[in-house]
Amino acid sequence: MKVLKDILSAKEAIEVFGDLYVKVSGIVFDSRKVKPGCLFVAVRGTQVDGHRFIQGAIEKGAVAVVCEDIPAEIPGNITFIKVNNSSRVLGELASAFYGYPSETLKIVGVTGTNGKTSIVTLLHGLFTKLGYKAGLISTIKNSIGGKETRATHTTPDAVQIQRLFAEMVDAGCAYCFMEVSSHAIHQGRIAGVNFSGGIFTNLTHDHLDYHKTFAEYLKAKKMFFDGLPETAFALTNIDDKNGLVMVQNTKAKIITYSIRALADFRCKVLERHFDGMLLNLDNREVWAKFVGKFNAYNLLAVYVAAISMGQEQDEVLSAISELEPVRGRFETIRSLDGKLAIVDYAHTPDALQNVLNTISEIRSHNEQVITVVGAGGDRDKSKRPEMAREAVLASDKVILTSDNPRSEVPEQIIADMEAGLDALQKKKVLSIVNRKEAIKTALMLAGPGDIILVAGKGHEDYQEVKGVKHHFDDKEVIEEIFGII
Q1: Inter-CA distances, 381 with 349, 386, 413, Å
Q2: What SS3 string covers 400-418?
Q3: Treating both helix axes as pointing N-terminal to C-terminal, what angle do 384-393 and 349-362 enclose, rounded to 10 degrees?
Q4: pLDDT per residue over 125-184, tens digit each?
Q5: Which of 43, 94, 260, 325 is the most buried (most CB within 10 A)?
Q6: Which contiguous run of DSSP H or E holds residue 188?
Q7: Closest to 155 (Cα-Cα) out of 175, 167, 140
Q8: C-alpha separations of 340 from 52, 351, 444, 479, 485 in Å
């Protein structure tokens, strides 16, 4: 229980009606989760306005309400606080309610279109190897000192974030590494978080179903760096044309990294193999069990972040050489007769291009590359034809199939992808709606030595159709067909 006045900053409240010394048992913004004694924060969401549910929250036992518009009639026993921005205040209140946990932790946020999950997971693994207790908030899972739970969002809501931080502090964690999505930034979910550092990976075509324009997408990402404190570092990839744009207004210490240009920290790929690569990382050679230039960028970012937080170079390089690839990110499976299947989460044109370029750099070119790819339903439709084009340009054969169709008809999603191809390109393409049949066909078309890329779902172990999630795991399907499970 906390006294409302103790968690409410004077700068947040425009007007107050009622008793500020009322005790609150918790903070909620979903009226369905209100319990007696709660503080209800009415947030204007993208689909629903929480102000519509104020009365319902009171009926369920809310003792105080934070909102942007005060109702015409105010019950005498309920405290109302008027604020300018409920979404931002929600994070600030949650931080105060849980005892400002981000002031104790060293929190590094990673944002960008691609690479977020890999970098936070690798940082978590690296610092664990260095002997620290660390927390992780990612697309795949949340981890608190080794205790893992499945994630439901790339970045949780503001209240859950602060609760997770508090649990990390209680568990003795010193660090937390978290993905910071553009949705979370735009919706104010990271308000109240004191970041020790921020990392920018890259910016490519994605989430325009939400942000509508690329400029708005960029603006959302940039807001994260604009909000970093002077005590933090802002690590940016200057090989991306937006890398310096991201940090042009930040108060944090700017650190640059690159593979192609002059920067504070650089990396060069010396050797490439399907089981790893030899890197020159900050003028030191290190073998890593990762494949592809995109992973060289990820490992460079991880290295620089660790050094920026005061870790010793030799210890960091040693730990990097022991790190294992993230599940569903260029994950390889070999058949008994020599076929190589690769499962990757690539679900944007840029990510798909990166994976296929990596395959091209390593392959002998005497083998076929067969790509299985789809596109998600209820998401940015403009990237569908681009996904198909990228697949066809770098593959000998392509099978277009379902990803997570969600509420859409999968045949229409595939038709949208086909629309990006000319008549000659379509001769390379098969369309098979059933994803398992598509994967099976690709594996049957392949011969010994051939490479099959199954892209789009990576670590996901479900397929969402008509709002229902069905168990589906690309890796499991491949291993079953290969006869190795």
Answers
A1: 12, 10, 8
A2: ECCCCCECCCHHHHHHHHH
A3: 10
A4: 999 999 999 999 998 899 998 888 888 776 789 999 999 999 999 999 999 999 999 888
A5: 94
A6: none
A7: 140
A8: 54, 20, 12, 11, 16
